[in-house]
Write a structure and sequence with these properties.
It is a single chain. This protein has 27 helices and no strands. By secondary structure, it is an all-alpha fold.
């Protein structure tokens, strides 16, 4: 033992003895000051030990010696209970700090916290531990600091005999806010996440043990709070997964997910209820209601957690078994009910749109969605249902799938995501499909995605055209109204959004060339089809519309394209601009020729 450590231990012993004498003498004013000095002294020493990161083991040895002395002092049967109660306000937090020095010191820190749990009033220790967990200094926002404190909290919770729901509702936000803070920081891959999450789930099992003892409304509300806690932890497990390699993440996360899945079924939460969101809404309403207390925002990711819980069950059979879930039954139920499928899409979108999630999990989410969509035998809709109420759900769901299509690096995942996109689009009633697809086009910032969406739009128009052509008698055809939804004047307004942006100027080129080319191709297709069929459903052949498109879209665009191509020729280094704009120029010239031809007789 070094002389420096000896000096620290001597000061610690003297300070503890001074605090005890003042408390025994009833000198509470000076005892409070002495305890505050003890807290400052231990904080200073712990910070210096952890910050030093000594390679010769001095920091570890010093921490072990300090924790050993604290434990021996507090564990002494001769120590007055009043003294133990006073020291409880500073020593558990101090022990947690010293526990960060090494594996051995972490174990001793747990022993110190445990002795206070054994000797102090549970309700007092509950407050002490929540305070310690919720207010670490920046240096100690690491798993090792929280491990002994959470271990103590899980033991204290089951010792409290009254007002269980209120106590748990205080503790849960404290824990979740700490996890949220930690998930935004960087850590070494050997960080002890397993022990941290073991104790986090240990708190959940303590809450579960309390639920067993309760009855009626109290039990129902505590069950709901536990469910929200577990779902939110599911999200934080994913945040940890993003901090380490995929292989290591799977190894570390699976045991935690298994425990959480077991807890979900104990809360009577089912995969179908989680995936459609109905059970998430139910427990949220029970716990949150109109509550405006601080800490409620800690449940902000429970819907993502619910979706993740199901996808983990799809990804790993043992997880579904732990949740006592039958995924086959869930999939069959979704395949037979369109509104439930759309509710599932609304939950899965949280996985597809979360930028912090690994694409490995998004891939399983896409495969699961394809599994549902591929098994649909028929698309039947009721005339008595207003499906437009699902517009926002379908729109945001498809937007989320777009993100996978655009940002996934794996070509197979992008292909599967696009396949899922088209299958979901086909699952939407025709009366809503036009509005959803139009909104996606208007609100996309990606030129390539707009081009893809316009391609989908053209496919819908072709499908409707084929339906009309295969009908022997269009007037008597029961589907005639459904076959003209995409052939209406709104389609030209949509194309003008691309060819003439809201600023009333031409689109940016060559950045927006993909979208422009696709829009020109669609315009040409509509113009030729309407001319061939001698129809004018879209009003594209009206003189007013022909003049408007010609003067306000095609001519300004032609001027811009020619100028950009000419500028590209004068650049010494080939930029690829000409290659990008040549197809645009070709199709644009053809559109101009067609419009001019139609305007001649007029």
């Amino acid at each position: 033992m070094s002389a420096e450590t000896d000096a620290v231990l001597f000061t610690l012993h003297e300070t503890l003895a001074s605090c005890s004498k003042l408390i025994e003498a009833g000198d509470y004013r000076n005892s409070d000051q002495s305890i505050a000095e003890l807290a400052d002294f231990l904080e200073s020493i712990s910070e210096s030990l952890i910050a030093a990161e000594s390679e010769n083991g001095d920091s570890e040895n010093a921490a072990v010696e300090i924790l050993t002395q604290i434990h021996e002092y507090v564990a002494s049967p001769a120590l007055n209970q009043e003294i133990v109660d006073a020291l409880a306000f500073v020593l558990p937090m101090a022990a947690a700090r010293f526990g960060c020095a090494s594996t051995r010191s972490l174990e001793l820190a747990g022993n110190v916290v445990d002795i206070f749990v054994e000797r102090c009033n549970p309700r007092d220790m509950f407050s002490v531990l929540c305070e310690a967990i919720g207010s670490p200094s920046d240096l100690f926002v690491i798993p090792d600091y929280f491990i002994p404190l959470l271990s103590g909290l899980m033991k204290v919770l089951v010792l409290i005999r009254t007002r269980h729901y209120k106590q748990v509702k205080v503790a849960v936000p404290v824990i979740l806010n700490v996890l949220k803070d930690m998930s935004s920081k960087s850590y070494d891959e050997d960080t002890d996440w397993e022990k941290l999450f073991h104790n986090v789930t240990g708190v959940a099992y303590s809450i579960r043990a309390i639920c067993v003892k309760l009855e009626g409304e109290d039990k129902k509300k505590l069950h709901a709070l536990l469910g929200l806690y577990v779902l939110q932890i599911m999200d934080f497990v994913l945040d940890v997964q993003a901090l380490v390699s995929v292989v290591m993440a799977s190894t570390r996360c699976l045991p935690v997910v298994l425990e959480l899945s077991d807890l979900l079924q104990q809360c009577e939460l089912s995969y179908i209820g989680l995936l459609t969101g109905c059970e998430v809404d139910m427990i949220s309403e029970l716990v949150l209601g109109d509550d405006s207390e601080d800490g409620i925002d800690c449940f902000s990711q429970v819907r993502l957690g619910a979706a993740v819980a199901v996808i983990w069950g799809y990804k790993a059979t043992e997880v579904a078994i732990a949740a006592k879930a039958d995924l086959t039954t869930v999939i069959v139920e979704l395949q037979g009910n369109c509104t439930r499928r759309w509710e599932a899409l609304a939950m899965l979108k949280h996985i597809f749109s979360d930028t912090n999630l690994s694409f490995e999990l998004k891939e399983h989410g896409i495969k699961f969605l394809l599994c549902i969509m591929d098994g649909i035998t028929s698309h039947s809709y009721s005339d008595r249902v207003d499906y437009s109420v699902y517009f926002a759900t379908l729109y945001t769901g498809l937007q989320a799938i777009e993100m996978v299509i655009m940002y996934a690096s794996d070509s197979i995942l992008r292909k599967n995501a696009f396949s899922a996109f088209k299958k979901v689009l086909a699952d939407i009633p025709a009366s809503v499909r036009f509005d959803v697809l139009s909104a996606l086009i208007k609100n996309s910032d990606s030129s390539s995605m707009v081009a893809i969406l316009l391609g989908c739009f053209k496919e819908e128009m072709l499908r409707e055209k084929n339906e009309r052509n295969t009908s022997k008698d269009a007037v008597q055809n029961s589907d005639v109204s459904q076959s003209t939804l995409f052939w209406n004047p709104c389609v030209l307004e949509l194309l003008e959004e691309v060819l003439r942006p809201p600023e009333d100027g031409p689109p940016y080129l060559p950045e927006y060339s993909d979208a422009v080319l696709s829009a020109l191709n669609l315009y040409r297709f509509i113009l030729i089809t309407e001319s061939t069929d001698n129809s004018n459903r879209t009003r594209i052949l009206s003189e007013e519309k022909l003049h408007e498109v010609y003067k306000e879209c095609l001519v300004p665009l032609h001027t811009l394209v020619e100028a950009e191509i000419e500028n590209a020729k004068n650049v010494e280094v080939e930029s690829g601009i000409a290659c990008a704009l040549n197809p645009v120029e070709f199709v644009l010239d053809r559109c101009i020729e067609l419009v001019q031809h139609k305007l001649k007789p007029l």
